[in-house]
Structure formats: C-alpha cells, structure tokens
Design a protein that fits this description.
With 327 residues, this protein is mainly α. Helices cover 49% and strands 11% of the residues. It is built from 13 helices and eight strands.
C-alpha cells in the first residue's frame, strides 16, 4: 500500500518493495506536483491515481531510480536493451566483461557512482597480474599424436567434451584455455601435450577500452531512462589504444597460399580465392546464398553475414569459418 506525504506544494508517494539481503526495507519514492489551476477534489483524485500507478510500476519492476545498484541495473540493461538492440556476438562479448565490472563496481548505487570509481577500476585493470586467462600451446606434433592414437577427431572431441571447432584450432597450433588443455590431456591420457605460453600478464589497452565501452553504454542508457542525471564515464578519459597495422600476406606468401589450394577441395579453394580477390569478410562469405551470385554478370551481392558465437551449431558454415581462419 502506497503512503502519501504532503511536502510544501508537492506530494511524496512511497511504496514498500520488501526487504534486501541485509534485512533492510526497500522503499521507492516519487514526487508529484499538482498543476496550479487544479481544485482540491481534482488533486485528491489525481493523487490517488498516481499512487496506484506508481505502486503498480514498483511491483512489476517498471520503476527504476538512482537507488538501484550497477549490478541490478546491468541485468535490466541486458534484458531491455542489449539483447534486443545489439548483435548476439556483441552481447556475448559484453557479458564476458561483466564479472570484473560487477566485482569492482556492482555494489555501488547508480546515483553514487562517480568518475573516481571508474578511474580506479581502469587503473586496477592496467596493473600487473590482472590477466587471468593463461593460454596453453600444443606440442608441434600434436596432429601426429592424434593419428597414432587411432582415434578420430569427432570421437576425441566427444571424449574431451569440447567442440570439433576447438579441436581443429588446437590441431592447427592455436593456443587454448587451461580447461581445454586438461580435457584433451585426459582424453588422450598422454602427459606433456601442452605448455603455458609466456606473455605479459597485463590486460591490453584495447581490452580496457572494451570495459570503457560497455560501462559507458550502460550509463548512457541510465541517463536516457532518467535514472541518473549524467554519465560519469563522460568525465573520465578512456585508456589510450595504440594503432596496430594489421598483418597481411606479402606477394610470395600469397603465391604459396594459392599454390597450396590446388590440393584442397573445390569448395574451400573457391571460398578462399573469393576472399583474396574481393576482400569479403569471413562472415559475409559464409552468409552467401546462390541467389546472391550472378554468374553471367560476374557479380556477388553481399547482403548479410554469418556470425559465430558459443551458442552456434556445428553446421558446415560455422566449421568453414574456422577452416578459413586456421587452415
């Protein structure tokens, strides 16, 4: 039941929303000010209506105010904005960043979140020892070891409880997580298959910039939804990211790649040659249908892209993206 309190020329409506984890009562409030020309009877009628509407919003979770913590708001932001407006791959990437954000800032109320909190968070991300995802590299003859074991790649992926895509990455010499390395070691029952890759244990500036983007996006939404007055991220200078030129093949490497494709299936050869000659992205390539290709005119229409996410299926297109990248 909402309670109403007169405060000067306005009225404060208070609704009790239960108790928090510490046993303290959760109260949400709003202020309503009547128009100057309203009669006493009109004020009473409209005040009762505002109280009922406000209580309904509180009970259904439609009302948010600055008392909400960043952790609570992030759940609403993902549900009402990110999952509806952003690409699935972006959403998955943002969710992967949330554990560090919530650990450092999740307990702070939105109306008390200040630039110095965010600056301290960024400074902590730049410290030594923050990077936790140590990668492991397979031995050079990993592919030969699998052949000698007599187990197929499909059977090995099932025994290790990993995807075939992940196994192919490993066979091609790519680094994997400790969990994946342990699973493959256990499935093959051979020690010494993986070794940790020594690298800088600091987060890259580009990674810290991703944290800035997701925080700024959430807090911008909080401003637009009139939960807070301003975005504290706008008063914090984001980490400087140095531009790195992309690695590309030179003429000799390109000629060798084309020569190697002669022994590959026509579907892979065609796809990779199309990438080389047009510059089409992998996702755009895998999104092509026959209706997008005009053979008589020599025109390929790029109208969509296929994106790989952890929830993607093991279909040919998903596997082909992996093949094009790691072959």
């Amino acid at each position: 039941m909402a309670t109403i309190e007169k405060r000067g020329n306005s009225y404060r409506i208070t609704v009790s929303c239960g108790y928090n984890s510490e046993g303290k009562q959760i109260k949400k409030r709003m202020t309503w000010t009547p128009k100057p020309n309203m009669t006493r009877r009109q004020i009473e009628k409209e005040l009762d209506r505002q109280a009922v509407l406000f209580e309904e919003k509180c009970q259904t979770g439609q009302f948010l105010d600055g008392n909400i913590t960043l952790a609570e708001f992030s759940e609403r932001w993902f549900k009402d904005y990110a999952e509806k407006q952003l690409k699935e791959r972006s959403v998955q990437g943002y969710k992967g960043l949330m554990p560090r954000i919530l650990k450092a800032l999740g307990h702070i109320r939105l109306d008390r979140l200040q630039p110095h909190h965010i600056m301290e968070f960024y400074n902590n991300l730049a410290e030594d020892g923050v990077k936790e995802d140590i990668k492991y590299k397979p031995v050079d003859n990993f592919k030969d070891i699998i052949k000698q074991s007599g187990i197929t790649q499909k059977a090995l992926s099932e025994a290790a409880n990993i995807s075939e895509n992940t196994l192919r990455q490993c066979i091609n010499g790519c680094t994997v997580s400790k969990s994946t390395a342990d699973k493959l070691t256990g499935a093959l029952q051979i020690d010494g298959l993986f070794s940790p890759v020594e690298s800088d244990n600091r987060l890259a500036a580009a990674t810290i910039a991703k944290y800035n983007r997701v925080l700024s996006s959430m807090l911008t939404a909080a401003v637009q939804w009139q939960i807070i007055l301003s975005n504290p991220c706008s008063r914090v200078k984001p980490p400087h990211v140095e531009y790195k030129e992309a690695a590309v093949l030179d003429e000799k490497q390109l000629a060798k790649l084309i020569q190697c494709l002669n022994d590959e299936p026509i579907k892979y050869k065609t796809a990779i040659m199309l990438i080389l000659y047009t510059g089409v992205r992998r996702g755009e390539l895998c999104g092509l249908n026959w209706s997008d290709i005009e053979l008589d005119k020599g025109i390929v229409h790029i109208t969509k892209a296929l994106l790989y996410t952890p929830n993607s299926c093991e279909c040919f297109s998903c596997m082909f993206i992996n093949y094009c990248y790691f072959a």
